[in-house]
Each structure stands twice: as C-alpha cells, then as structure tokens.
C-alpha cells in the first residue's frame, strides 16, 4: 500500500511565528511533491510544488525535500490568521502503469492572533 | 479562464436512488481525476482518465460506482444504487499531460445519502 503520512494536528502556532508542517511517503520512486491548502468547505488549492532535493522558496512559504529520508516539509514564515487551514501533502506515485496523486489526510493548522 | 466546473454543488438523495455527478475539466487538460473526501479517509483517488480513456479505476469502491468520459470536456461519476456510506464530498480535478504538473480542483459536490 503506497502511503503519504501527515500528523493530523491541530497544530497551533502564534501569529508571526514559523509554522512547520511535515510529511513522509512510502514510494521511494516518487518524483514530484505538492502542498495544497484547503479551507473548511472549500476545494484544495495548490501552494507549492517541489521536484529536487533541497529547499524551494516562494514568498512566505518554503518547501523542503529529502528523497533519501522520504520526507517533505512546508515552512510558513510570519504566520497569519488567514493561514489557518488544513494543509495536504500530495505525492505523485506510479500506480498501475500510470501516475496519480496520492494525498495525506492533512494537518489542521491554527494560527492564534 | 474558467476552472474545473462541477455540478451539482449539493445533492441530497435517499438510499437506493441513482446519483450522477458531473464535471467539465479545464480546456486543454488531458488528465481528469475523480476524488472522494471524508473525514475518516481523507482524499481518495477513485478513477482517472487520460485523453478520455480510463487508466486506473482501482480506487472505485465497488460495482455501484461507474465513471465515463465521452469527450474531452465532460465526465460523469454515477452511483447506483446509492448508500448512506457514500456520503462525502466528491472532487473532480484536471491537469495537463506533464508528469509533474499540479492538479486543479473543482468546487466539489457534497453528497448526502439518507
């Protein structure tokens, strides 16, 4: 069973601090990794994607990938109350001869004003 | 540019009835995915299509579920007969053919089976 694991939370972070979200995956052959944000009652929206080992920065967001450890993380700097949402880690896993995104169950993040 | 369009937004039906969910992908996207989301199981991939052809339906829970994509701009997910445990939010998503390209989600259909 190919899996993506996340801590469900809730993860509570004070406003202005750094929020750190973590994800591990089981398929060593996975090549692409995505972070989606989902507000309650809404659809997932893409925040970032990362393909290579190391860090990738986009504004207040930094994605980190370590393929050897099968670990991907998302850092949110200067956290704002509007960042409160569920964050979904998604991994492109080879399945049945073609590809499809496998999602973790998400981490519920709460930014405390 | 219009995003992925799903209908209806909400569906309430009685156990045993047929339910049909609809999706229009983003123009030019040749992959289409159907996901189901529940609190217990999260987002689960049900089936996906490439160029209107079903590629992987291993996530379809049982024979009561079927999906079609008669052309590049339309797909349906049908449940017949529906059961209370089918209650969930069903998302359609599409993407271009690049292996690393992200998914774009529709607004979802919230299905309640009583």
Structure, explained:
The complex is a heterodimer of chains A (113) and B (114). By secondary structure, chain A is mainly beta. Helix content of chain A is 0%, strand content 58%. Chain A is globular. Chain B has 114 residues and is an all-beta fold. Chain B has strands spanning 5-7, 10-13, 19-24, 31-38, 42-50, 53-56, 65-71, 74-79, 88-95, 104-105, 109-113. In chain B, the strands form 2 sheets. In chain B, strands 2, 4, 5, 6, 9, 10 and 11 form a 7-stranded mixed beta sheet that branches. Chain B has a 4-stranded antiparallel beta sheet with strand order 1-3-8-7, with no helix packed on it. Chain B is globular and about 40 Å long. The N and C termini of chain B lie far apart (37 Å). The chains are: A mainly beta (113), B mainly beta (114). The interface between A and B is medium-sized, with 25 and 21 residues.
Name some characteristics of this structure.
heterodimer; A: 113 residues; mainly beta; five-stranded antiparallel beta sheet; 0% helix; B: 114 residues; seven-stranded mixed beta sheet; four-stranded antiparallel beta sheet; 54% strand
């Amino acid at each position: 069973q190919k899996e993506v694991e996340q801590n469900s939370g809730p993860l509570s972070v004070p406003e202005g601090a750094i929020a750190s979200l973590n994800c591990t995956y089981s398929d060593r052959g996975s090549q692409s990794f995505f972070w989606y944000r989902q507000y309650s009652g809404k659809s997932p929206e893409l925040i970032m994607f990362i393909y290579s080992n190391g860090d990738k920065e986009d504004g207040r967001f930094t994605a980190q990938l370590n393929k050897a450890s099968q670990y991907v993380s998302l850092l949110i700097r200067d956290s704002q109350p509007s960042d409160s949402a569920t964050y979904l880690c998604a991994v492109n896993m080879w399945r049945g001869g073609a590809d499809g995104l496998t999602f973790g169950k998400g981490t519920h993040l709460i930014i405390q004003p | 540019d219009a995003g992925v369009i799903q209908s209806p937004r909400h569906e309430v039906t009685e156990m045993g009835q047929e339910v049909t969910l609809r999706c229009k992908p983003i123009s030019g996207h040749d992959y289409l995915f159907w996901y189901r989301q529940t609190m217990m199981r999260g987002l689960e991939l049900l089936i996906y299509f490439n160029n209107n052809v079903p590629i992987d339906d291993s996530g379809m829970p049982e024979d009561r579920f079927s999906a079609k994509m008669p052309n590049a701009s339309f797909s349906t997910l049908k449940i017949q007969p529906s059961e209370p445990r089918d209650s969930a939010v069903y998302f359609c998503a599409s993407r271009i053919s690049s292996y690393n390209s992200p998914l774009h989600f529709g607004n979802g259909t919230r299905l309640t089976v009583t």
